[in-house]
Amino acid sequence: MSELPKCPICQSSYTYEDRGVFVCPECGHEWSEIEEEGLVVRDSNGNLLSEGDSVTVIKDLKVKGSSTPLKQGTKVKNIRLVEGDHNIDCKIDGFGPMKLKSEFVKKLS
């Protein structure tokens, strides 16, 4: 399970997520994403991804220029987060450098 951010107003660690919004029960502040960090990327289960995380592919993906697809269950280590539609930049053994969409991966714990 991903760690929830502290409240940016009162620094309370008792925050919780409710329908995509973070809520602080102590001061009542609500915010939509982590305000201190610029780029927010979530995996297919809604877990927050960060630089250097390891993820696994959740479905077979066609790869342009390759006759073989990227198979479900492929583990990808040391991801980098980038702006854009394909927001994960990585290197996959057997395929080389690649960009992935976060909706097709899940974070490894």
Model description:
The protein has 109 residues and is an all-beta fold. It folds into two domains: 1-34, Single Sheet (N-terminal domain of TfIIb); 54-107, SH3 type barrels, CATH 2.30.30. Helix content is 0%, strand content 29%. The chain contains no helices and eleven strands. A three-stranded antiparallel beta sheet has the order 1-2-3, with no helix packed on it. A three-stranded antiparallel beta sheet has the order 7-6-11, with no helix packed on it. A three-stranded antiparallel beta sheet has the order 8-9-10, with no helix packed on it. A hairpin with a 5-residue loop joins strand 4 and strand 5. It is elongated. 15% of the residues are buried. Belongs to the YjdM family. Residues 41-107 form the Protein YjdM C-terminal domain. Residues 3-32 form the Protein YjdM N-terminal domain. This is Phosphonoacetate hydrolase. Pfam families: YjdM (PF03831), Zn_Ribbon_YjdM (PF08274).
